[in-house]
Design brief:
- The protein is an all-alpha fold.
- It has one domain.
- It is about 70% helix and about 0% strand.
- Helix 1 packs parallel to helix 3.
- It starts with a helix and ends with a helix.
Length: about 90
């Protein structure tokens, strides 16, 4: 993702969540963390988050969701530790 794409995401978040404000130092930090993310996946994650939550998404939420989507698209099966725990708990 390039800086223009990332700013597009920030503008969307800022418009939907009035308490969210873009600051230059935050933009630099987020950009360093988001360069490897796919813009379309990140946008999809943000739109899904907007439908479900009254709070702005964190970068870790977007990155984790984007990574899960990428792994699923490449054929890797993903599951959470909670699913593993529930399965182990149900067996015993």
């Amino acid at each position: 993702m390039n800086k223009t794409e990332m700013l597009t995401l920030f503008v969307l978040i800022e418009r939907v969540y009035p308490g969210f404000r873009i600051k230059n130092d935050i933009v630099q930090y987020y950009f360093s963390q988001c360069q490897d993310m796919d813009f379309d996946e990140a946008m999809g994650c943000i739109k899904e988050h907007i439908r479900k939550s009254p709070y702005p998404p964190s970068i870790s939420h977007i990155a984790a969701k984007s990574l899960r989507n990428h792994l699923a698209a490449t054929g890797f099966e993903t599951y959470s530790w909670h699913e593993e725990y529930v399965l182990a708990y149900d067996i015993s």
